[in-house]
C-alpha cells in the first residue's frame, strides 16, 4: 500500500470520526448543552461519573483517532504536492502536523477531565463540576472550541490543489469554503455557526479527499512534471 492510499484511508477515517462525533453531540449530549455556551457542567460531571467509558470512547474517537489519522493524511498530501510545489508542501505539512498535535492534546486533556471528574464526583459534586469546566476550557483552547489552525491547513491544501491540479476542482473548492469557515471561528459572533459549518464541511471534504487519493494516488514523485 502506498502512502497516497494510506492517506486516502486516513482521510476517510477522519471523516468517519467527525460523523461519530456529531452523532453523539446531537443525541445524548444535546440536552446538556454540550458544544454551546449554555453547557450544564453539573450534568456533564454527573454523566462523567455515571458513564466515564462512554465519554472517554467519544473523546478518543473525535480527538485521538482523528489526530493520528490526520498526521498520516498531512504527510501524504504534503508528498503529493512536493514535486510541483515544494514551498506549499512545506507549509501544508507544518500546519497539518501542528493541527494534529493540538487535536491529540485536546483529546488527552478531555480524557483526563473525565477521569478526574468521575473520581471526585461522589464526594464533591460541585468541585467535580468546577474541575470539569476548567479542564474543558483548556480542551477548547487547544482545539475543541476554535478551528483556526485546521481552517488554515485545509485552506492551504485547497489553494495548492487548485493551483497545481493535485486535487479535483470540486474538492478543492469545497476545501476553500471549509477552510474559511474554520478561520471565521476566530470571530466570537460567528463562532458557533462557523464551527458548525467547518464541522459539516469537514466531513464532506475529508471523505472527498479520501476517495480522490484512493482512486488516483498519482504517478510516482520522480515521474511528475515540475
UniProtKB/TrEMBL annotation:
Organism: Tropicimonas sediminicola
This protein's record includes keyword Cell cycle: no
UniProt KW keywords: Membrane, Transmembrane, Transmembrane helix
Transmembrane segments: 7-30, 62-82, 94-114, 148-164, 171-190, 196-214
Name of the protein in question: DUF4386 domain-containing protein
Keyword Transferase: no
Amino acid at each position: 500500500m502506498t502512502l497516497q492510499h494510506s492517506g486516502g484511508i486516513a482521510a476517510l477515517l477522519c471523516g468517519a470520526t467527525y460523523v461519530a462525533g456529531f452523532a453523539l453531540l446531537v443525541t445524548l449530549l444535546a440536552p446538556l448543552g454540550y458544544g454551546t455556551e449554555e453547557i450544564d457542567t453539573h450534568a456533564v460531571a454527573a454523566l462523567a461519573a455515571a458513564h466515564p467509558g462512554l465519554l472517554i470512547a467519544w473523546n478518543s474517537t473525535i480527538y485521538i483517532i482523528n489526530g493520528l489519522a490526520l498526521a498520516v493524511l498531512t504527510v501524504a498530501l504534503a508528498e503529493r504536492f512536493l514535486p510541483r510545489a515544494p514551498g506549499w508542501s512545506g507549509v501544508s505539512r507544518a500546519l497539518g502536523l501542528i493541527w494534529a498535535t493540538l487535536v491529540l492534546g485536546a483529546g488527552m486533556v478531555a480524557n483526563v477531565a473525565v477521569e478526574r471528574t468521575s473520581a471526585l464526583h461522589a464526594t464533591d459534586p460541585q468541585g467535580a463540576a468546577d474541575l470539569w469546566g476548567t479542564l474543558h476550557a483548556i480542551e477548547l483552547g487547544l482545539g475543541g472550541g476554535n478551528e483556526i489552525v485546521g481552517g488554515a491547513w485545509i485552506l492551504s491544501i485547497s489553494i495548492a490543489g487548485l493551483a497545481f491540479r493535485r486535487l479535483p476542482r470540486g474538492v478543492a473548492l469545497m476545501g476553500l469554503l471549509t477552510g474559511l469557515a474554520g478561520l471565521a471561528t476566530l470571530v466570537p459572533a460567528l463562532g458557533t455557526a462557523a464551527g458548525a459549518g467547518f464541522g459539516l464541511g469537514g466531513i464532506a471534504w475529508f471523505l472527498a479527499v479520501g476517495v480522490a487519493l484512493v482512486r488516483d494516488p498519482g504517478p510516482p514523485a520522480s515521474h511528475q512534471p515540475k
